[in-house]
Structure formats: structure tokens, C-alpha cells
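User: Structure please.
Assistant: Input sequence and predicted structure:
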Amino acid sequence: MEIQVINYTPTPQRQKVYYPHLLTTWTAEYRSVFGDRSEKVALMTNLVKGGTGFATTPSTSKLEALPKEVLPAVLSLQDAEEEAYEMLRRYYMHKARSWKVPKFEHHSTVEIYVPYEYFVRPSRWLKKDRTYLHEPVSQYDDLLKKYPEIETFIEDVQKVQ
């Protein structure tokens, strides 16, 4: 299965998991205290847990991934676009304090996958090994158990094997 992934350098001997997001780009036209303004905005929506935030458009590349490495999306693309639109509308009405109703023009929608790697690291003080999740984009390591949706996906995949 071919997916579009944020560029990263994979680490050998680590298992991979790809987390789905939706990148939408918009043009917002609104009136502020200083006059009419127009801004190009990119929003990233989490397709598993929901939630939208502002983002810079990342550099991506196409990648061939196994279905057991790709976390399935819970949110449909249409629901994610509606959530992004609602977040954008609320931001420009309440935070940017637009003096008239803002207008939004939708430009593009791209499904992007954020890469994660997981690995087992022996614990110093405990007698059991711990599984860690590594995000190559930010170089951040954290315990896998803090991310229950990824942990259950990995456990389900390992049960099938």
C-alpha cells in the first residue's frame, strides 16, 4: 500500500507504525482592526483521535508500507474536513477578532502519515523490558503505554502473527 509520509530517516532494527493525519490548506479573508487581510493557512487533523491544529506544510514523500504498519483512520475524510473548517471559523471569529464574518476558501486536502518507530529497551531498575515509541521527526522517545491507540494496534497486529 502506497502512502504519503513526512520525510524521515528510518532507524534499522526498529518496527514502524504510520499514524494518519489530514492536511488541509485554506485561504482566510477577514477584517481586523488594521483592515482587510488574507492569509493562507494549513491545518492538520488527527484521523484517529480527532482534534485539529495549525501546521506548517511538511515535506513528504511516497512510501510503500505494509498494511500491518498503518494505523487505520477512525474519522472519515469528510468529518475531518468539517472539523478543520469549524476550528478555522472559531479561530478567526474569537481569537483573531474579525470585524465581519470571515470567508474561507478550501484549496487542498492530503492524507499524510506521521512515522513512528517502536523498540524494546531493558529497564535499569525494573526486571522487565519496556517498549518505547520514537518519533523520528522530533527525535522524541516516550513509553508506548502513554499512547493507548498505538499500543492496542501493535498488540492486535502481534496477535495475528
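The two ends are 19 Å apart (CA to CA).
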